[in-house]
Design goal:
Largest sheet: 4 strands, antiparallel
Number of domains: 1
Order of helices and strands: HHEEEEEEEEHH
CATH architecture: Sandwich
CATH topology: Jelly Rolls
Number of helices: 4
Oligomer: single chain
Number of strands: 8
Length: 157
């Protein structure tokens, strides 16, 4: 297994700029993992025990829509975060995720990261702010997509 160092995780945009002591703490909770194309990372409703920072490849987020099956709601690529449900009780996935292409990522143990955040409130606040920015961007993207779907439905309805 490849050792994950502070410099390895500092290269990812999500963690860039964190102080060295915080990077060292987070590096101890991480592993480098790979997923082949079509590998399901997690299912909607499952326990959120990890999260990933994509180094290469693509991951699609999907949602089960009654009568329509799984619908892709977003595709994430290099430099992006997969998963935020690990940070908020009840720690269950709101969506599913699958590798759309072979993926290399930094995988973090969610409970260990939450413990790091609890022991270092500055880190906890910083991770919370960074995740909030991710969630906000994704909600805005989803809103735009839903408005587009609504417009298409109206045109063809």
């Amino acid at each position: 297994m490849i050792e994950v160092t502070a410099s390895v995780i500092a290269a990812h945009p999500f963690l860039r700029g964190l102080p060295p002591d915080q990077l060292v703490a987070l590096a101890g909770t991480a592993a480098i993992v790979t997923f082949p194309a079509r590998c399901r990372l997690f299912e909607e409703g499952g326990n959120a025990t990890h999260f990933w920072l994509i180094r290469s490849g693509r991951v699609t987020l999907d949602l089960h829509v009654p009568g329509q099956g799984r619908q892709v709601i977003e595709t994430l690529g290099m430099g992006e975060v997969v998963g935020w449900s690990w940070m908020f009780p009840p720690y269950q996935w709101s969506f599913g995720a699958v590798a759309a292409a072979p993926v290399e990522a930094l995988e973090f143990d969610a409970a260990a990261v939450r413990a790091c955040c609890a022991s270092d409130p500055r880190l906890g606040l910083e991770i919370s702010w960074r995740l909030t920015r991710v969630v906000t961007r994704r909600l805005q993207t989803t809103r735009i997509r839903m408005l587009t779907w609504h417009d298409l439905t109206e045109q063809h309805g």
